[in-house]
Every structure is written in structure tokens, then in C-alpha cells.
Amino acid sequence: MTLRIHFTLTDLARVRFAGPSSPLTATAFSTSRLAHSPGPPQLDLWRRAVRPRLAGGPTPFTDLLPSAPEHPLPGFLRPHRGLRTLEEELERLEATPRQVLRAELDHLATRRNLPRWTRRLADGDRGTVARLAASVRDYHRAAVAPYWPGLSAVLAADLAARARQLRDGGVEEVLSTLQPGMHWRPPLLVIDVPGGEFDYHLGGRGLLLSPAAFTSYVPCDPDDEQPTLYYEVTRSPLPRTRVTGPQHGLAALLGHSRAAVLQVIAEGVSTGELARRTGLSPASASEHTTVLRGVGLVHTERHGRLSRHSLTPLGAELLLESSAPAPKVTERPAPPPAPQRGSA
Q1: pTM to 2 decimal places
Q2: How far apart are CA 284 and CA 289, in angstroms?
Q3: Burial of 5: CB neighbours in 10 Å, binned 0-12, 13-18, 19+
Q4: How confident is the model over 47-59, as pLDDT tens digits?
């Protein structure tokens, strides 16, 4: 089973990477891993932890999700450019124009049956959209929120590494190394997918590449203004980065408080949020961010009196690499003492 994405020279010139990763997209993709697909042991631990928290029947969110791997996922549930928090993304979801909702649902209906309530969603009924957002929030709180700091650090580190790869090796090296099952055979990107043979022509629109947690997702709507390929970076919600407490190696380098600050900033927070999350005073939290910003680990944007902090690519890489397991050291037995020479 194969998808062939056809590139023109214009498309190659328009390959680029998405911005910050989207917690809403990760939340939508996680449902696939929860329902099917084998994975590493951490993934099974995650399933066992999450399923009891999700006891209950279908919700508006789960009703819209693919029931089979080849089914499309509506674009309003998989933004390729993330906002800082899920709440901001849900506000954006609730403000989705009616014509966008209708177009996405019409495309979805060509591939599978939809429940009757989606007619109200397609009409832009605000109450229906609000109930959808609420069901996303409930699912995210149970299944993704506890793991998002580590996942977002992994995704940010991948973006930083890909930017260097694009600079040093060019777009063809990027397309050749996205993930197993994706093969660059100029002018085609050939992808192993379920559901048969399919050709997708970019037609000069270019391709946006977005690192994804839990699963990959490939273009399928020929009318999409911006084709986006989500390539899988980690299928486990428990990546190398821990989600509670600073890593020992990082704490040894920066100190416990500053390491904790760096880890919380991975989620994108204001100074006040940072202080509450770390238990520091606002003045102390601000002092730590100043130091981290000075060495290139943190980026701060100011909007009036509010400052929001995020990791730079260097900061994301440091957070990721600091949690890599230490290599095992096998102790060798001490050599026997050298024989003592007798005195003359």
C-alpha cells in the first residue's frame, strides 16, 4: 500500500517546516495510539494509565476521529501551527468560520459515515462547537496534558535538528530521512500507508513538514491550500524527557531551581505561571529567565506588561539531551598489585 507525493521544482523550493507544535494535534493523534497499533513498552503503560480515566461512552471529539487508519482527520482538529496552550487552540477552534467547518466535514463524509449531530457543527452552531471543544479538553486533561512537557521538548528539539539539516544538506536530505516508511525517490516521496495506491500532486503548493507525536499523518485532500505532512518523531507519550522534576544531569549543570524553570518553560508560560508552577516568587522566576535568556536557552516575548517565555532550539535540545540515559559502565576488576622488588 503506497502513497506517492509528486513534487515539481516549485514544490521543492516551497518545502518548509511548521512552527511550534500543536497540543490539539497531538491530542487528536494520540487517539490512534490509544485504540490500536503496537509500540514500545512505555506506550502500553500509557494506555493502561489513560483508559480508566476515559471511562464512558463516545464524545463529540471521539465521534469525529478516524475509525480506521486510512480515514481523514478534519483540519480544524490538526492545526499545523500550534499556539502556546490548548486553551488558546480551543478558542481558535470555537472561532472557526462556518464555511471551513462545512468544507472539512463534507470531505470527511466522502470517506466515512458521520453522526447526525455533525450537521449542526457544519452549520456553525456555536453550542455544538463549544461542546466539541469541551470534550477535547476533557480528553486532553486525561491522556495528554501530564505528558505534554516532555513531548513538546522532543518536538522542539527535532525542529531544531531539522533546521540544521536543511541548512547543511538541503531539502532532499530532509525528505530522505523523515522516518521509516517514507522514501525519497525524486521527484516522488513514497510513503507506506494503509488503504491502497494513491497519487497526490502538490501542484506548486509546496509541502509543510510538521513533527508529530504518536503517529504520522499524510496529505489526502487534493483541495487543501497548504498540504501538510506530519512525520512521526515519537510514538510514546513517555519520551526521554521526564515530565516531573528536573533531570539530575541538568540540575547538576544549572542548579535545581533553574533546571525546573527551564523544564516548565518548555510548555510556554508567562512569568506569573512560571512562578506558580515552580513555587518561586515572581521576582526569582524573572531572575532565572533573565539568566537563561542571556545564554540563549530561553526566548521571551513581551505583550504590554505580560512576558511569555519559550525555549529556543538550543534550550529544547539541552532539555532533551540532558535526560538521555547514562551509558552503562562495566566496572573492571582492579589489576593485581605489581610485585614489589626486594631491597638490595
Answers
A1: 0.71
A2: 9
A3: buried
A4: 877 888 887 778 9
